[in-house]
Amino acid sequence: MKNFLDGIINRNKYICENGKVADYIPGLSSANKNHLGICVIDNDGTLLKSGDSEVKFTIQSISKPLTLMLALLDRGEKYVFSKVGMEPTGDAFNSIRKLETGRMRKPFNPMINAGAIEICSMIKGHSGEEKFNRVLDFFRLISENPNLEINDEIYQGEKETGNRNRSMAYFLKGEGLITGDVEEVLDIYFKQCSIEVTAVDLAKIGLFLAKGGVLSSGERVVSEHIATIAKTLMATCGMYDGSGEFAIKVGIPSKSGVGGGILSVVPGKMGIGVFGPSLDQKGNSIAGIAVLEEIAENFKFSIFN
Length: 305
Ligand code: DON
Known about the structure:
This protein is α+β, with helices and mostly antiparallel strands.
């Protein structure tokens, strides 16, 4: 398997040339577009990695299914889905248009920016700081990495350039969907996107989900049902407006981020973390998708097989 992973990285590395790194803030545009790495951890805890699997990058949108699980713990399924839907949009992750024109009168799902911001407003705590610290602690717990931290340069960049997110958050406030302080909610969102991880951290989170919400120690953190909600939304909405094609070509519940990461879960079997900051037009790791396609085909990992 290790040789197979090395082969996959070598065979797909050239694809990095065909995409481009996110360039909306300097902290992301300075990424090396030729980086490509993978880590897989199976049910027995066997960890294998290849390529740039130890390089740190910001989690970005991969934070969305994670904070969703915390919101479900804090508020319960009924409350959460009264304020955010479960349907794919077919639009870009930062699209605004369906917020007002969609039939739902709420963000379509928690994997798009509007839905993720709404989810951030549900995290419990007495202050913004306490709420974010609960998010960070939750990420540390399920990645089994107590050292996760924010990349401050990227956080500042997200905050300075996040006016599109700001406009969506104020719209949600106007609709009565966000009840708290909008800037506090946005701050949690910008901070959670700026948490640094590696492909190894993502593989560990993947394994946690693959086991239905259980850590390697056997400790249960979320119910099997909450883990299933996260995995299902990853399968239907996790690769944005590329989710349908990804489901056919790969068929592994996954969530991407513009930092170049992809978190993938082979239910009951394996957690996979991929890193490749060169992105396709939809904001997904271009070589990362190719790597996952090869793995899925080779091991018949599609959940639709
Ligand atoms: O909210 C934003 O626009 C950024 N923090 C990007 C989030 C993200 O990863 C979307 N992408 N694939």
